[in-house]
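Suppose you are handed only two things: the residues of a chain and a line of SMILES describing NAP. What would the bound structure be? This form records exactly that question and the answer produced for it, so the two can be stored side by side and reused later without any lookup.

QUESTION INPUTS
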Amino acid sequence: MKSIVLAEINGPLRSIEVEDPAPLDGHVLVNLRSAALNHRDVWIHQGQYARLQFPFIPGSDGAGFIGNDPVVINPGMNWGANPNVQSDAFDILGMPSNGTFAQKVLVPESQIHPMPDHLSFEEAAAIPLAGVTAFRAVVTQGKISSADRVLISGIGGGVALWAMQFALAAGAEVWVTSGNQTKIDRAVDLGVKGGFLYTDPEWTKTARQIGPFDLVIDGAGGEGLAQIMKIASPGGRIVCYGATSGGVPTFSPHILFWKQLRLLGSTMGSPDDFSSMMKFICLHKIVPVVDRIFALGACAEAYTYMEEGKQFGKIVLQIPV
Ligand SMILES: NC(=O)c1ccc[n+]([C@@H]2O[C@H](COP(=O)([O-])OP(=O)(O)OC[C@H]3O[C@@H](n4cnc5c(N)ncnc54)[C@H](OP(=O)(O)O)[C@@H]3O)[C@@H](O)[C@H]2O)c1
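ANSWER OUTPUT
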């Protein structure tokens, strides 16, 4: 089968023929039609990820066929019995196991979900990892309600855009941040009230006049997270799912305790989160925001495009039949 193979940190993303996966009890072979990138793929390529094993086929997101049935794969495996946190055995499709940047992938049968009727393969492939991360952050951990004023940071990102779509579908008032005014304008076109340029050192002053925000969904961390605590409502919830900008240099517990904030961590999602998300997407007929579709063989260009951060939405790979 045609596949992308990565053999070393920062190595070439080689487009080569490899053996089809061997059958395994309890597993099913998915004939992939589309896959999608996550920032995780870039972190792995750069060596910034735990327990790396080479060579392997990257990719966590995929949609394709089992027989004649269109399916979507849940990439979060071995969550375990506790809905509050994943088990030590939790892992993600596409490292250490071979992933979706190939014509076929072998996954445990329990990871398979029917593909929503209203979506194409390219749109469906944009759901899994970013979608479930956003759904758990917004719904399970963030406990969103239609009365909430919500702030979502870095709206160009795959997870952030899903968070925006779930929050809008829940009936909340949504605001965003971005490093790019065009991305804020596009989010406004999709239904958010407005946004703030996090590159403007004064952005929190403007945001304070509009806020405070009952629920903040943040994937950036860094100094921005310290600023977010200042514009969160007293008693507000801040859900943190990523650290694109690294640690928080000026974290002060004073604001945390005085405003009685709830700072919540969130990682991907349980099998129940994934099933609930799929139902929610079908109920609200949500169509993912796909920025650009690359051919599987142009995977290296897709990685560069994600590293440049120019995207607004998911970067998808089309798998040749
Ligand atoms: N915990 C989990 O389970 C989980 C799951 C998925 C992802 N993640 C993490 O979440 C982060 C986002 O992942 P992704 O796949 O959505 O990445 P992505 O599609 O590459 O998006 C990254 C986004 O980060 C935003 N950003 C960059 N610098 C920022 C800053 N200083 N302040 C606010 N936003 C900033 C940018 O938004 P603009 O372009 O709008 O400026 C960019 O679009 C990554 O760190 C990833 O590792 C965690």
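WHAT STANDS OUT: The chain has two domains: 2-127+288-318, 133-265. The first helix runs from residue 39 to 45.
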